[in-house]
């Protein structure tokens, strides 16, 4: 149930700091990603710096990068309120420090604009780590693709070699058969049997 001011039970429980009520609401089917005009439950917990509720919501399946209608994310909400521990937790759970909202503004931009040095430092450290991990993943992907290409090329070469070998054997068999036929024809003209060592009468028989 959502009130006309955009509030709803789960958000109210978070803002009141009633963790037990939040847990009961979630257990009874409260939408962990419900997004009203005031945002999601995760955004409310982030803005309040309530790390216990943040953990509960994330463990219950809250989407960390979902945006409100105004483009706010949970991380952006925590940054705006200078909630350092909430920022740290959200970054640790995978929130992107550099992902821009629909207006092109990222959490890093917000921290820089509001002159929040500690939060800005956290975001920049996370950005560097994220960039390094992305580069490593890209490198691993390229190496995996290279290994697949090498394996495919080796398989293709082995198949081509087998086909060439089979063709060579067939051609050799054809040549042997042709030579055998020519030899048999020649022996027949000479009156020589393959079972004898020479022409009939060649051994001196009268």
TrEMBL record:
ANK repeats lie at residues 5-37, 37-69, 70-102. PROSITE patterns: ANK_REP_REGION (PS50297), ANK_REPEAT (PS50088). The keyword Cell inner membrane does not apply. Pfam families: Ank, Ank_2. InterPro entries: Ankyrin_rpt, Ankyrin_rpt-contain_sf. Gene3D superfamilies: Ankyrin repeat-containing domain. Keywords: ANK repeat, Coiled coil, Repeat. It comes from the Eukaryota. GO terms for molecular function: ubiquitin-protein transferase activity. GO terms for biological process: protein K6-linked ubiquitination. Residues 136-171 form a coiled coil. PANTHER family: ANKYRIN REPEAT DOMAIN-CONTAINING PROTEIN 39-RELATED, BRCA1-ASSOCIATED RING DOMAIN PROTEIN 1. This is Ankyrin-repeat protein. It comes from Volvox carteri f. nagariensis.
């Amino acid at each position: 149930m959502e009130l006309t001011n955009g509030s709803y039970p789960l958000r109210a429980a978070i803002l009141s700091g009633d963790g037990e009520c939040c847990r009961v609401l979630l257990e009874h089917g409260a939408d962990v990603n419900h997004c009203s005009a005031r945002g999601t439950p995760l955004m409310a917990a982030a803005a309040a710096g309530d790390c216990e509720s943040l953990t509960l919501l994330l463990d219950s399946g809250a989407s960390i990068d979902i945006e409100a209608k105004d483009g706010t994310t949970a991380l952006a909400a925590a940054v705006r309120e200078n909630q350092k521990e909430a920022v740290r937790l959200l970054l640790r759970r995978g929130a992107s420090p550099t992902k821009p909202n629909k207006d092109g503004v990222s959490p890093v931009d917000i921290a820089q604009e509001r002159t929040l040095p500690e939060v800005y430092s956290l975001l920049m450290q996370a950005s560097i780590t994220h960039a390094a991990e992305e580069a490593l993943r890209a490198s691993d992907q390229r190496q995996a693709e290279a290994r697949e290409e090498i394996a495919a090329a080796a398989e293709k070469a082995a198949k081509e070699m087998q086909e060439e070998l089979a063709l060579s054997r067939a051609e050799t068999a054809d040549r042997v058969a042709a030579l055998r036929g020519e030899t048999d024809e020649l022996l027949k003209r000479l009156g020589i049997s393959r079972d004898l060592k020479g022409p009939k009468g060649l051994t001196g028989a009268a």
